[in-house]
Amino acid sequence: MAQLPGWSFPGSPFHEGEQQVQQRLGVRDRMEAVGRRVLRNFMPDQHREFFAGLPFLLLGTVDPAGQPSLSVVTGAPGFLSTPDATTLHVAAPPPKAQLRAGDDIGILGIDFATRRRNRANGLIARLDALSCDIAVKQSFGNCPRYIQAREWLAVPAAPGPLRRAPTLGRYERALTAAADTFFIASALGSLRDKPSQGIDASHRGGPPGFVRVDDERTLTVPDFNGNAYYNTLGNLTLNPRCGLLFLDFAQGTTLRIAAEAEILWEGPEVQRFAGAERILRFHVRECVTAPQAVPLRWRFREYSPFLGQLGTWHATKE
Fold this sequence. Notes:
By secondary structure, this protein is an alpha+beta fold. The protein has a single domain (16-305), classed as Pnp Oxidase, Chain A (Roll), CATH 2.30.110. 15% of the residues lie in helices and 40% in strands. The chain contains 6 helices and 17 strands. The protein has helices at residues 16-24, 28-38, 45-52, 170-178, 231-238, 268-271; strands at 56-62, 68-74, 80-84, 87-90, 104-111, 116-127, 132-142, 149-154, 163-165, 181-187, 199-205, 212-215, 218-223, 241-248, 253-264, 278-290, 296-302. Strands 9, 10, 11, 12, 13, 14, 15 and 16 form an 8-stranded antiparallel β-sheet that branches. A 7-stranded antiparallel β-sheet has the order 2-1-5-6-7-4-3, covered by helices on one side. A two-stranded antiparallel sheet has the order 8-17. α1 crosses α5. The radius of gyration is 19 Å and the shape is globular. The model has no long low-confidence stretch (mean pLDDT 92).
């Protein structure tokens, strides 16, 4: 049977939280029409080819206590394959979390070199110690905005011991303060009955320093103009728990942060960063640093041309 383009489930492709944000920002009717055209319940051929060429994938999961987090799985290009348009096979050990078949999962594939990114969410259909299959329920692409161009290189794996702490340490504060990229996992509910719900894995980019470290427990980040799906904001509107992931591109170290998000829709803080449409404030609950956990390194090439529209944090702070 031929695959029809666009949304084919009954009801809206956007859940209640996404609809609330779209309504608040005056784009609800337009985005409903866009969503029905570009959100799909299968991976189109170009997405399947894209995943097959990646050396890594970001997976968003939620632990039994309800905390979202992001993990990186890696392999030689081809370790991701699509036996059919609704199945993504991952030939790498799943994240070291309490995952089971049937659990929700969010997918973010990103190629920094070409500034392409494609996302999906679905369910874990099968998993063992060496691989897993993901049943894709919703699939869509994103624009290249705010992605910094980098080239990757595979290196031998040499992970160090994990460091856990309730707050940001000196290394963690330095990494976040210098970042031009991070990732966020957010979650609303199960995909089983409503394909527009589940776990979202998303990219955030900006000029170096766009993540402001207020103190060892607080990060403040501008939210810029984007595709107006508002997947992350929609989730956070209804469930503020989220997981952040920062990558040390030169060392392969990951920093995972369990946090609660606060959305500042307007006010003085929004005015302090040129180009911000609103502000996200993250209240840190736990940090997990994994030295050299990713057997890849990235060489910086150039910043996104969209960063020219943006400024920096004003020095004044209440």
